[in-house]
Amino acid sequence: MPHMGDLVAEMLARSGVDVVFGMPGGQTTALHDGISRRSNRIRHVLMRDERNAAYAADAYARLTGKPGVCDVTVGPGANLLPAGFLEALNASIPMVGIVGELPLDWLALKEKGIASQGFDQLSFFKTCTKAAWQVPSAAALPDILRTAFRVATSPRPGPVAVIIPHDIFDADWDGVTPPPTVDDRTIRIPYLRSTAPAGDIAMAAALIRRAKRPALVCGGGVHGADACAEVTAFADRLNGLTVTSLSGKGSVPETRPYAAGVLNPLGSWAAIELIQEADLVIWCGSKVSQNTGMNWTLPRPEQATITIDFDPLEHGRTFRPTVPLLGDVREIIVALDGALGAQPARAGWLQRIAEVKAEGERQKAVEIAAETVPIQPPRVMAELAKRIGSEDIVVSDASFSAGWIAGYIPAQQPGRQFLFARGQGGLGYSVPGAIGAAETRPGTRIVTVAGDGAFSYTVGELATQAQFNQRVVNVVLNNGRLGWIQLWQEIFFKNVQSALLETETVQPSFAAAAQALGLRGFTVDRPEEIGPALDAAFAHDGPSVVEVRIDDRATPIHSFKRRMRESADAPRPRPGTVYKLRDWKVSPQLVEDPAE
């Protein structure tokens, strides 16, 4: 007789879920049995670590707009989910976690693991999700599952946890399938759209018309609203500057003359320079977080501001916007574009943008041309940029990798082609993220970039890439260090060495590990070897690892680059010093931790 695991699998399939990422346990075997009976409609990707199941589901959701679904068993499986849940929560990514639990009549025995693997999972997940429920009965299961999808996809999207006790999972099911959702629009984001009042739109349009040096800052909310085409059309008419956050990269093509790249200490020098000169900043789907706001020194006091966000709590959180526009990014941009009217030519502002961008490109050209050994990362990124196609997906790990991608691999077209783990900024996202990304578009090439520290977190998931023969090119920038930590220590603590990942006698080979796990592995030590190794990896019909030995003092952080050039005898600031942006050339911005 069918069981409630069948019911869950059937409701997932009818809700548009075609893949679940996770790891089975005794308490969740009924779910896996149910999925196996429906293999033509829904499949399961077995991960090597439950933490990585959440990251894979996160990447899947970013590319499809559908909730990413992951499953774990009770206890040790469940307690590995928070890293991925917090990433999705802070980045507004819809996710549904199916979590196993001890039988209902064992609940009094969960404390201190009296019943094996038990603990208070419901309280635990309420701290790292948008919502969490424990299913109290078989009769309640369908409605809770429907509610989970509605909550996960409603503004503001986020992860939810559905905790299902063992005895409910194994209970008999009468085979009658309830409707998978109360509202079938809740299976994808955004399913609700709204716009700001006409009067507010008119005020914002008038403010833009008066601006001499307007700037548009695009955050991840542009992608969440599926608004890249509309935002690009608006930016084309604005005759102003456009920059993005890391999560917003691809909101507009970075090939446009007005696009200055990523605004972040890890990002574009031109973006950092130019944003200070704007007299109006339009924050579009951006939280104005620590790094996009350059440690909250932006917006400057003299800058007028417009904020566009569907979350009312984002307006006025760190500054008072001149005009707040509450609603869906796409709807508001369309309305604003319609109200804008003819724009001033702003020839002087556009000329200034061109000049600063040209200077930034000259700086990058010098870095890219470097023939030094160990290799400079910009050289690697330039070679990657030549080979990445319009349908390829780039998945970044945290820390310096995000900066190398942001600054040296331009977004050629509008759309979400780049995935950055910026909700938490934790190491270890790229390899499992690639697994999730590959499941959205079978046959599409996925490219990951990670440092050796980040890559070490998830080496085991290379076996998953190999098992499913995914077309993933994993680029490892190996400097034998935790690069950001090493530079911070050198600048502020006279080179305290707690960042070493290798020694003269112990030098892990990620290319060799890849080959042992069933992938192709390539090691690159010299600049002239980069191109051939990438060509071979891109030509391979399966996963590969390209390990590049890079300079351990290379950094994409512009303030660190300047600091490393300063005299070793110069007075050192205290750790945590924050420099304001009054004069970038004199007072470089230092942030607490651009990797987080």
UniProtKB/TrEMBL annotation:
Essential cofactor(s): thiamine diphosphate
Positions of transmembrane segments: none
InterPro entries: DHS-like_NAD/FAD-binding_dom, THDP-binding, Thiamin_PyroP_enz_cen_dom, Thiamin_PyroP_enz_TPP-bd_dom, TPP-bd_CS, TPP_enz, TPP_enzyme_TPP-bd
GO molecular function: acetolactate synthase activity; flavin adenine dinucleotide binding; magnesium ion binding; thiamine pyrophosphate binding
All residue ranges annotated as the Thiamine pyrophosphate enzyme N-terminal TPP-binding domain in the record: 4-121
Lineage: superkingdom: Bacteria
CDD domains membership: TPP_PYR_POX_like (cd07035)
Name of a matching Pfam family: TPP_enzyme_N
Keyword annotations from UniProtKB, A to Z: Thiamine pyrophosphate, Transferase
Residues of the Thiamine pyrophosphate enzyme TPP-binding domain: 401-548
Key word Cell cycle present: no
Gene Ontology terms: cellular component: acetolactate synthase complex
Domain Thiamine pyrophosphate enzyme central: 201-336
GO biological process annotation, one example: L-valine biosynthetic process
Family: Belongs to the TPP enzyme family.
UniProt-recorded name of the protein: Thiamine pyrophosphate-binding protein
